[in-house]
Write a structure and sequence with these properties.
Blueprint lengths: L12 E4 L6 H15 L3 E6 L5 H14 L3 E7 L2 H11 L3 E4 L8 E8 L3 E2 L6 H14 L11 E3 L3 H11 L8 E6 L5 H9 L4 E6 L21 H10 L3 E5 L6 E4 L5 E2 L1 H15 L4 E5 L5 H8 L3 E5 L3 H11 L3 E3 L5 E3 L8 H13 L5 H6 L5 E2 L3 E4 L3 H13 L5 E3 L4 E4 L3 E7 L5 E8 L2 H15 L2
Parallel strand pairs: 2-3, 2-4, 3-7, 8-9, 8-10, 13-14, 13-15
Antiparallel strand pairs: 1-5, 4-5, 5-6, 10-11, 11-12, 15-16, 17-22, 18-22, 19-20, 20-21, 21-22
């Protein structure tokens, strides 16, 4: 019997196929999803992994057996599935393991309108149902099974995005895109078709074995090919998408990465120009520059925990127009509060193409501080080492501590956040300061305690 505690995560289902989960289990997940959402109809989509079509179809069979009609949109990016959920008003299930290696697969689920399904919003209930059925047998089928039909929404998705950002008037741009053999190779050509962009496509062949590099742009080694190509062809910008293309990383004309915090600030300024006085959500690891830029443009900045379900909940609660994370997830009210790397990329292209400066100069106004990036330490006792760090700073008069998400320590000219990984024996450290020397000093000070 599968150990669901190993594969049902905080925000999604994810594990190795077929060792941890398989098509019979996917069928039960489909039935449970149908039951928990109470929907008459759902929509499903999947990425390019070899196991995705079979798992997705099994899930559809499970839902249809309980009388639910299933619309399959087939190969798609995660944000394309969110579009379908929003536009069709249906709960959705996306089969992907995002940036994980080829042997993994998973399910990202949402209610109608792309509202997230996480531990507290249905995922724990789905797990409980499936665990029960693995012991007692499959649920009783409906007298009349639901239908399973196919529908292509790629064109509608592209049209929706292009209705949100006007790129028609931009100067011609040379754009290198590294799709990492993931779903960006499927969506980018349609979204950018006919625009004044010269597209240089890298690794657009859909291949879930990831023959060129992992589809995880958060790891610097996976950006090396793109950086070299941008320099080689003299491109204006480079874009890197992760496996399911819901995250986008940006490279400037010099081949240097642009921090997701700078992109968050840039897009926030553009969204505030459209929606004056709006609220912008940012997680607590984004740069100080984000709330500064939001306030400078007349908006209200709201700080939140890391993780898409927290961001989406806070966006719904506050009516926020936009949200950004340090991990290059970007959320838009105009996109059902869901994350879409493609829409963020289009905002950057519009900002770049709407003026004459190179990208490095354009983003300099949004990139104001020095940062360490995320530093992981493998520790046997996460709680113990985090407590030791807390003790070291608790009695200092020159700092403030808060525990919104992990431990954040803030001084006049620096801050750091220390968080435990939910899935691995790691502590994650992020440091920011007004200069690189201070970053190095604070980083080394904290690491010496963590790794003592």
């Amino acid at each position: 019997m599968a150990d669901l505690s190993q594969i049902v995560k905080a925000y999604d289902i994810r594990g190795v196929v077929p060792d941890q989960w398989d098509e019979p289990l996917a069928e039960l997940f489909g039935a449970a999803f149908a039951q928990i959402t109470g929907a008459d109809a759902i929509v499903t989509g999947h990425d390019m992994r070899p196991s995705s079509p079979g798992l997705s179809r099994a899930f559809a069979r499970g839902a249809a057996a309980l009388g639910v009609d299933v619309t399959e949109i087939g190969l798609c990016s995660t944000d394309e599935l969110y579009f379908a959920s929003g536009a069709l008003g249906l709960p959705g299930a996306m089969f992907t393991a995002s940036h994980n290696p080829a042997q993994y697969n998973g399910i990202k689920m949402c209610r109608a309108g792309a509202a997230p399904v996480g531990q507290d919003t249905g995922l724990a209930d789905i797990r409980a149902l499936v665990e029960g059925w693995t012991e007692t047998g499959a649920p009783e089928p409906a007298a009349t099974p639901g239908t399973i039909t196919r529908r292509d929404v790629l064109g509608d998705y592209a049209e929706h995005l292009r209705g949100l950002v006007d790129l028609s008037g931009i100067r011609p741009l040379k754009v290198v895109v590294d799709a990492g053999n993931g779903m960006g190779g499927h969506t980018v050509p349609t979204v950018l078709d006919g625009l004044p962009t010269e597209l240089d496509a890298m690794y657009f062949e859909l291949d879930g074995t990831f023959p060129n590099h992992e589809a995880n742009p958060l790891d610097p080694k996976n950006l090396v090919d793109l950086q070299a190509r941008v320099r080689e062809v003299g491109a204006d910008i480079g874009l890197a998408f992760d496996g399911d293309a819901d995250r986008c990383f940006v490279i400037d004309e010099n081949g240097d990465p642009v921090s997701p915090s700078a992109i968050t600030a840039l897009v926030a300024a553009r969204e505030l120009a459209k929606h004056p006085g709006g609220t912008v959500i940012h997680n607590l690891i984004t740069s100080w520059s984000v709330p500064e830029v939001v306030k400078e443009h007349g908006g209200k900045a709201v700080r939140t925990r890391v993780g898409h379900s927290f961001i989406k909940e806070e966006m719904a609660r506050t009516g926020a127009i936009f949200g950004g994370e340090h991990s290059a997830h970007y959320y838009f009210r105009d996109f059902w509060n869901a994350d879409t790397g493609m829409l963020a990329a289009m905002h950057v292209l519009a900002a770049l193409g709407g003026q004459d400066e190179p990208l490095s100069r354009l983003v300099a106004q949004y990139d104001r501080y020095a940062a360490s990036g995320e530093i992981n330490s493998t520790v046997a006792d996460q709680a113990g080492r985090a407590a030791a760090v807390r003790t070291a700073y608790a009695d200092r008069d020159d700092v403030q501590l808060d525990e919104l998400d992990g431990l954040t320590v803030t001084a006049a000219d620096w801050w750091f956040n220390l968080r435990a990984s939910n899935t691995e024996p790691l502590l994650r450290l992020n440091v920011e300061a007004r200069d690189a020397q201070t970053v190095a000093r604070v980083r080394d000070e904290v690491l010496s305690i963590i790794r003592a």
